[in-house]
Design a protein that fits this description.
189 residues, mainly beta, Tubby Protein, Chain A, twelve-stranded antiparallel β-barrel, 13% helix, 45% strand, globular
Length: 189
């Protein structure tokens, strides 16, 4: 199982969150993999990943199951509609550290914010102010045996960039890319 690297790069737009997903090989060579958009202020969250900005071919989608749900559950589907994964927010665990349960074809992964101290500090700051969190936010996704399947690390840059290191090369790249968008868009980063 070969390790691979992705980057999710956010582009600023007043009406949509826009993302570029790029594969990065060991030599640093970049390969565009997809372009994603999420409408802001929409009642039912949906993100569509296209093969490019011309929006000619859907690569995959992330869609919320319900409009009003405390524990958000999102389906990740291939462009042809085939199920790739289910991402569910663990509300109870997320009181201290944001936590996601991921089902990838019957294989369970759990993703948690790496730093409990930063997660709690961020929540306290959000109670008292609208100032966005400026420090990096990192997530580790582990399998049932405790092995790290992937990590998502927010880079300190002007716009949000997430470096996604996939330690389990058997994971379809679209699942880690969807998780990076979940960390950014669905947590209001």
């Amino acid at each position: 199982m070969n390790r691979y690297l992705l980057e999710l790069r956010q582009r600023f737009s007043p009406l949509q969150n826009r993302y570029d997903v790029v594969g990065v090989d060991a030599s640093g060579l970049e390969t565009p993999l997809g372009y994603a958009e999420q409408k802001r202020f929409s009642l039912k969250e949906k993100v569509t990943f296209w093969s490019s900005a011309d929006r000619s071919q859907v690569v995959f989608t992330i869609g919320a199951r319900n409009m009003f749900e405390i524990a958000g559950t999102y389906d990740v589907a291939a462009g042809d509609g085939t199920a790739l994964a289910v991402i569910a927010k663990d509300v109870v665990s997320s009181f201290t550290r944001s936590t996601y349960n991921v089902d990838v074809g019957g294989r369970a992964l759990v993703g948690r914010e790496r730093s409990a101290v930063q997660a709690i500090a961020r929540r306290v700051l959000e109670v008292f102010t609208d100032v966005p969190w400026f420090l990096p936010i990192h997530f580790d996704f582990t399998d049932a045996g405790g092995a790290t399947a992937l990590t998502i690390e927010r880079q300190m840059r002007l716009r949000d960039v997430y470096r996604v290191t996939v330690h389990d090369g058997s994971l379809d790249w679209r699942v880690p890319a969807a998780l990076a968008v979940t960390v950014d868009a669905f947590m209001n980063r």
